[in-house]
Amino acid sequence: MTFRMPDPLFGALAVVAVVLVVATAGSSFSNPMRRRLHDAEIRVGIRMWWYLIGGFFLALIVSRTLAVVALGLVSFVAFKEFLTLAPTRRADSKVLLWAYLTIPLQYIWTGTGWYGMFIVFIPVYVFLLLPMRMVLLGETRGFLRAVGVIHWGLMTTVFCVSHLAYLLVLPDLPGLKNSGVGLLFYLVVVTHFNDAVQFLVNKRFARHAILTGVRPGLSREGLFAGIAMSALAAIVLAPLYTPFTPMQAGAVGLMIGLFGFIGFVAITAVERDLGVAESRDFLPGHGGLLLRLDSLMFTAPLFFHFVYYLYY
Amino acid sequence: MRKLLRMLFVVLVARPIIMFWLGLTVRHRERLPNRGPAIVAANHNSHLDTVALLSLFPLEDIPHVRPVAAADYFMKPGLMQWFSLNVIGIIPVARGGAGTGVDPLEECYRALERGEILLIFPEGTRGEPETMAEMKSGISYLAKRSPTVPVVPIFMRGLGKSMGKGTFIPIPFFVDVFVGRPFSWTGEKESFMERLRDAFVHLQKKVPAPVE
């Protein structure tokens, strides 16, 4: 009989699951803990991590393909939410159905590992075909705004999110089992760790406010703490899930810290522009899902290309 | 048989379209009447309105939920008529049928007496997407005849955008449904209609419209 080291991915998922059970039980039973976990941000975070952990187990145990399909559904709901909030012209209803059709297609390219198509489909072909279909309607008023809104929505909610799924279909790297799932786990953990550090530091130690026009409560301290802690977390976790050298991991951490923040403020700016209320109720259809995905939508493609350029 | 068809329609068509393809946020679902007789009054912008309302009710109630629909449109002989009567379970009402000697609402009175839940669109027609038209007073006759029956106003936003007049494939959009407080016959037609209009004005404010 040989003793095997437990798979770091399963180990980490088990730890996360235990933390979730404690947090969920704590927020529903114990009073002092409930008060601490009362914050809507935290409760929503707990709920989202339940979904995430389910998704990772799906990818590891059941099937990668199903996990890709699940991410396709995330894109579907996110794009639907975006279109519900964004202004669309009534004339464009047929164009919108075509826009929705790009979601299954993009995830077919992803699931089958057709990299060339995956990477050009939405940025090039859909970008050119959408205005063609639209001009056939013969309505020129609001044309640029409509085509811009639809394509921006597809780029963020479908193209960027599909990079999470493409990580899953990357072939295993030498010496790393389930390396695709591991890389995705690493990206999601560092991105959310960055979000959490920025949130907590902004809450407790904010001195120098930044971007007050976008959202109150952001601070330079939060931003720098987030970037620094992301770099640290990225370096510590790298040997378990990635082929990165410490230098590379540090660079990835800095990148995730900075662009997670940029994604967060950019999506916040979009929601403000669309008139989404300040006190969001986190409901799907009211900006709830976009808000959950904001930082990941920006870090996913950057992380993906970092890995892809260096190791594939 | 009719019962089964109607329940199958709700499980296999109405709920998947409304819950998955579109996506529904319901506020104050607890104000929905869970047993008849009751009158549910909703704004009307799309064929999906009836489908969405049907998806709100528990399955066992479906056989007692009866959409009131225009006879001239839905009773054209053929597939439409069969579908409307057996699958949707409509009560056909002749538009502009007052003064013909037969009360066009006769069937509705019977249904309320049987303890059924009527779904009624007081605007009478789908009209322009996402705008409310002037309400017809037909509903006041129902309330007057059954003064203790609760009238539940429901405001829905997004269905006209998803599948307005003239389109037949629903485009996925999230839909907001706000159920208002039940009220009943006020004693006279004018004040009753005023009460109903106020209810919709109030609900419209609760469901914010997206910016244009």
Overview of this structure, please?
The complex is a heterodimer of chains A (312) and B (212). By secondary structure, chain A is mainly alpha-helical. Helices cover 77% and strands 0% of the residues of chain A. Chain A has 11 helices and no strands. Chain A has helices spanning 8-28, 31-36, 40-62, 64-85, 93-111, 115-135, 143-169, 179-204, 220-241, 246-273, 288-311. The model of chain A has no long low-confidence stretch (mean pLDDT 89). Chain B has 212 residues and is an alpha/beta fold. Chain B has one domain: Glycerol-3-phosphate (1)-acyltransferase. Helix content of chain B is 39%, strand content 16%. Chain B has 8 helices and 7 strands. A 7-stranded mixed beta sheet of chain B has the order 1-7-6-2-5-3-4, with helices on both faces. In chain B, helix 1 (2-22) crosses helix 2. Chain A binds chain B through residues 76-77, 80-81, 83-88, 90, 93, 96-97, 100, 274-275, 277, 283-286, and chain B through 23, 25, 129, 158, 161, 164, 167, 169, 171-176, 208, 210-212.
In terms of DSSP E residues, the strand content of chain A is: under 5%
The largest sheet of chain A, given as strand count, sense and whether it forms a barrel, is:
none
Going by CATH, the homologous superfamily of chain B would be: Glycerol-3-phosphate (1)-acyltransferase
Q: Helix fraction of chain B? A: 25-40%
Give the low-pLDDT segments of chain B: none
Our Rg estimate of chain B from Cα atoms comes to 16 Å
Assigned CATH architecture of chain B: 3-Layer(aba) Sandwich
Order of strands across the widest beta sheet of chain B?
A: 1-7-6-2-5-3-4
**What gyration radius of chain A follows from the Cα positions, in whole Å?**
20 Å
